[in-house]
Inverse folding.
């Protein structure tokens, strides 16, 4: 019990004695745990809106697409072809089917609205309410001849509202309503599940397809005019929706080219949030790595200053084990606090990013911050603190008591080649290279943190380049809700990464200054100016930052490709015009931020630093 | 001596001059007058030893003389150039070109070899690496450590380290060398090694100010100034140098 009191007291007192360092450490770990909490909290938040929408629209358990065999257009007469009718009859009487609607004709048409041309599947409907899949009108009214109802997410993407004029395959229509449905995934993911598209003339290939409803006869005539293969949609309700997959397999309709279960649709509805996760999870790991670098530098710097404390503890009987625990306790306590902050921030911020989008009704509900998620976040926070502080704590605990009491710092490394090279360089680089050579581990950490930051920034640039490439086709100019949401996530992530990188740069420079206090004071005594020393500290950060930034470029592109499902083909290398300024900006920022503590530190009197170094 | 706290030489050509210089630390009750109205003139080629008990302000005075610290009041001159009003950049130039420091704790860069430590001021002054190395080699030879050029400080004895530090102080051919307790961390044998070097510098006409506790070191000087509570309390003109009477006493000449 006594030991616990001692450990707690020492940890708390030390934290209170150095509040600025404690706050920096807390900020670093909290940033990582917040991003991680957000990413993990997105699990399972999408089912709720789909179910609400399915209830409100009498959502189908199975959606069957009939007819529409690819090949020469056979023409569509008024009424449903007998073969389709026969198959629909068979499907509606299949075991387990309790209700149905359709078959409804569907035409693949080019919709022109507000200067954009977008591929649309126009489903023919009548005025009567359907028993299964009756889209819920959220604005305007239901279909009528000459009028088109647009799926809500799609309408938002093209900027269409009730009363707007659009054209379908060149025929003028009025937007009479906006509606939501649970029978198809929302724009732009409609074709993320079963989808067969006949591209109308003038529309380039794209899997981004909008959904619209028109009068049934309008749909048929659009299909005829289009010349594409007509097909029909049949919506089925099952006695046991959980058996949708099994029933789909037993329908026995040979011309059913697509059968989609409600589970597939629900999963596709969640693509928006899944995409966010694809962005946030790698981002959380990047933030975690930056946090480790931050904490390692901070803790390493503090450990160096804690030599006498270690000596005193050992002199009064503290075992190496006790010393290790004391040194770790405060960092672990901060990590726990940071985990709590991250979880709370994640809990508060998750609703902002778990909106299901305009395609679904209701809200996502509470994010799933389960005990498992909490445990993962706490474990990661503790791992960050441990990874960064265990080695220096063990090293301090092993130091001899006399050396520790004397405050003997670890002797700096000698890198003869670097010293020899530096002799030929201007004073800031001469001193900067020697500072780097003294503390190669810190330089490595600095390089790693710049590499991680560059990786994140380049991944964002690659995202924009790849999306720009993808959107450069037929649907250019039309908002993609997934891209928009991804951009929001990337913005959050970029801000978090930059904040951590800024912290890291300042902390690293501070630690370098702390470590090099004696040698920089000596350089001043020998005639180096304050600005030369500030420039030297900045150079000491810049030198390892350069390889870090260079390595970060391919890593960033690779990270985007990996997060993008390994789709190398969909990855576009960012243009050099944006890449080079971004990398240079990172290097300038690292150098500039390092100059701040360097300049402040250089104001300390030389005599004070020399006395400190000699004691 | 011209009254309290005065130790001024005759003549007008001073290498170093302090005029009513004061330096305080702390405030109110905790105010410490480290240097209190001190006057000091050091002539070209003169060796002055400053003695006094710990905390009497010797080191502070040395730091002020060398532009490592700024006085609160008074004037400081080096070779006719007033330095107490100089900005930091100007002081850096003075430290680099006009002053050489020798510290009690050596203050060598642990990761640099002896020759690399010595050439550092020359490199900071913008000399070519070749010229800096040549000068460092000469100085190493001068202090008797030519065979230790590539040794790290940890591989040298205390006396050898201090000789390297002295060589470093001479790298830019300073007008004055300021030594703060140069033998404070050394045993007798090492002290004699260092004193031999100072003696040779003195013989060569190098201006030296040595702060010390050690009467053997003080005995090598031309003039001994005693300091207490921030002021000069006594001044003694000595025979001067290792070849003088006091120098003979400490056995430096043979």
């Amino acid at each position: 019990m006594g030991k616990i009191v001692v450990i707690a007291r020492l940890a708390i007192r030390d934290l209170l004695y150095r509040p600025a360092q404690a706050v920096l450490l807390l900020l670093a770990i909290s940033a990582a745990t917040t991003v991680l909490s957000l990413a993990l909290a997105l699990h399972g938040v999408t089912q709720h809106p789909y179910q609400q929408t399915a209830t409100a629209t009498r959502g189908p358990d199975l959606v069957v697409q009939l007819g529409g065999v690819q090949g020469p257009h056979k023409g569509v007469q008024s009424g449903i072809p007998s073969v389709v009718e026969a198959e629909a009859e068979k499907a509606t009487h299949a075991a387990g089917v309790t209700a149905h609607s359709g078959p409804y004709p569907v035409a693949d048409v080019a919709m022109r609205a507000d200067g954009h041309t977008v591929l649309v599947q126009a489903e023919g409907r009548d005025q009567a309410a359907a028993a299964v899949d009756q889209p819920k009108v959220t604005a305007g009214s239901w279909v009528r001849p000459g009028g088109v109802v647009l799926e809500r997410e799609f309408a938002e993407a093209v900027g269409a509202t009730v009363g707007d004029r659009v054209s379908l395959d060149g025929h003028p229509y009025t937007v009479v309503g906006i509606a939501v449905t649970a029978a198809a995934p929302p724009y732009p993911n409609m074709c993320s599940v079963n989808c067969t598209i006949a591209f109308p003339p003038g529309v380039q290939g794209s899997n981004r397809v909008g959904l619209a409803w028109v009068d049934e006869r309008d749909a048929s005539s659009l299909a005829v005019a289009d010349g594409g293969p007509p097909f029909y949609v049949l919506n089925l309700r099952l006695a046991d929706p959980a058996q949708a997959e099994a029933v789909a397999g037993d329908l026995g309709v040979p011309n059913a080219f697509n059968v989609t279960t409600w589970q597939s649709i629900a999963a596709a509805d969640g693509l928006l949030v899944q995409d966010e996760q694809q962005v946030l999870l790698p981002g959380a790991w990047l933030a975690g790595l930056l946090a480790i670098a931050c904490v390692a530098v901070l803790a390493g710097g503090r450990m160096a200053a804690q030599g006498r404390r270690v000596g005193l503890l050992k002199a009064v009987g503290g075992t190496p084990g006790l010393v290790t625990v004391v040194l770790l306790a405060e960092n672990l306590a901060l990590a726990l606090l940071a985990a709590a902050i991250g979880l709370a921030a994640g809990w508060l911020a998750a609703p902002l990013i778990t909106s299901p989008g305009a395609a679904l009704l209701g809200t996502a509900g509470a994010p799933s911050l389960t005990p498992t998620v909490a445990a993962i976040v706490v474990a990661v926070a503790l791992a960050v603190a441990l990874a960064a502080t265990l080695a220096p704590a063990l090293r301090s605990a092993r130091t001899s008591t006399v050396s520790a009491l004397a405050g003997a710092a670890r002797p700096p490394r000698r890198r003869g080649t670097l010293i020899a090279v530096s002799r030929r360089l201007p004073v800031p680089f001469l001193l900067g290279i020697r500072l780097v050579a003294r503390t190669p581990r810190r330089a490595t950490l600095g390089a790693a943190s710049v590499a991680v930051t560059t990786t994140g920034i380049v991944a964002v640039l690659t995202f924009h380049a790849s999306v720009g490439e993808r959107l450069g086709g037929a649907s250019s100019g039309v908002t993609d809700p997934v891209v928009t949401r991804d951009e929001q996530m990337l913005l959050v992530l970029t801000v978090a990464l930059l904040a951590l990188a800024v912290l890291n740069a300042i902390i690293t420079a501070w630690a370098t200054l702390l470590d090099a206090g004696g040698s920089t004071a000596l350089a001043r005594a020998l005639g180096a100016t304050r600005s030369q020393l500030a420039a030297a500290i900045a150079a000491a950060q810049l030198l390892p930052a350069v390889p870090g930034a260079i390595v970060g470029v391919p890593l960033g592109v690779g990270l985007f490709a990996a997060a993008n499902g390994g789709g190398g083909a969909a990855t576009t290398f960012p243009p050099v015009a944006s890449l080079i300024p971004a990398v240079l900006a990172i290097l300038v920022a690292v150098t500039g931020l390092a100059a701040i503590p360097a300049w402040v530190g250089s104001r300390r009197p030389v005599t004070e630093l020399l006395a400190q170094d000699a004691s | 001596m011209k009254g309290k706290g005065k130790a001024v030489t005759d003549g007008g050509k001073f290498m170093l001059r302090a005029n009513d210089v004061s330096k305080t630390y702390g405030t109110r009750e905790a105010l410490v007058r480290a240097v209190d109205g001190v006057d000091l003139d050091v002539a070209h080629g003169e060796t002055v030893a400053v003695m006094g008990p710990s905390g009497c302000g010797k080191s502070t005075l040395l730091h002020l003389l060398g532009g490592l610290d700024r006085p609160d009041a008074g004037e400081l001159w080096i070779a006719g150039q007033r330095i107490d009003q100089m900005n930091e950049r100007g002081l850096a130039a003075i430290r680099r070109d006009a002053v050489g420091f020798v510290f009690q704790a050596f203050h060598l860069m642990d990761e640099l070899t002896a020759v690399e430590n010595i050439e550092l001021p020359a490199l900071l002054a913008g000399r070519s690496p070749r010229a800096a190395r040549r000068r460092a080699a000469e100085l190493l030879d001068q202090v008797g450590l030519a065979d230790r050029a590539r040794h790290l400080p940890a591989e040298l004895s205390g006396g050898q380290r201090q000789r390297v530090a002295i060589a470093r102080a001479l790298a830019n051919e300073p007008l004055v060398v300021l030594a703060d307790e140069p033998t404070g961390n050394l045993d007798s044998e090492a002290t004699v090694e260092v004193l031999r070097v100072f003696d040779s510098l003195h013989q060569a006409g190098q201006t030296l100010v040595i702060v010390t506790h050690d009467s053997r070191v003080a005995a090598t000087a031309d003039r001994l100034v005693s300091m207490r509570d921030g002021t000069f309390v006594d001044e003694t003109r000595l025979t001067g140098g290792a070849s003088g009477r006091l120098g003979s006493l400490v056995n430096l000449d043979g």
